[in-house]
Amino acid sequence: MIRVGLVTGAARGIGRAIALRLAKDGFNVAVNDIEASSGDLQKVQQEIEQLGQRSIAIIADVSDSKSVENMMQETVEKLGSLDVLIANAGIGEVKSLLDTTVEDWDKVFAVNTRGIFLCYKEAAKIMIKQAQTAALEWAPYNITVNAYCPGLIKTSLSDKSNEVLSKIQGKSVNDIESDSLKTIPIGRVGYPEDVANLVSFLAGKDSDYITGQSILVNGGRELS
Fold first, then answer.
1. What's the rounded Cα separation, in Å, for the pair 116 and 111?
2. 0.85 cut: is pTM over it?
3. Pathway membership of this protein (predicted)?
4. How far apart are CA 38 and CA 84, in angstroms?
5. In angstroms, rounded to a whole number, what is the distance separating the alpha carbons of residues 45 and 116?
6. pLDDT tens-digit profile of 78-107?
């Protein structure tokens, strides 16, 4: 039976890399992002289908409870189940503290905190229901929950952050990047695929005894 994964914030960066890696691992994949990223999201869906897997693109705001509920239901209705959720959607306001508004602050927490809560809650409802059904024929279904904690990952968001920092600190972008590299023992920035490699393992059967963990993907910049 082909397993199904759902990746939020999948139009670009880490989310895109995770979605493509899951497809390469044999998953059918639902990909999600907001309306403003619909063009890029459609491209990711097409890339997954070119890898021979089924995929659907779902436009939804993860900070809205009804949208999240509908997204989970659409995944099950169109792809048959929901086995792995990657609550990847996240945003950042790259501004100085004095330039950050209350609205900016609330928006970040709505997506990065409330969004994860809503996705976990609705996905768990579906997975538990699937487990109860499957338990009639198979052993109870175990749901594991782990978090990946990316360090300095090369994405459009990190590029934007470096541009803002260069203006605030009066340094070139190259100098900002060089300063960051000095804090990474491995000596390079991370790439979305580095995170996707970990997610591939956590989504697979070999990690079924790992749960409740926050795993750093940062080249040794911080130690756990």
1. 7
2. yes
3. Lipid metabolism; fatty acid biosynthesis
4. 22
5. 22
6. 999 999 999 999 998 878 788 899 999 999
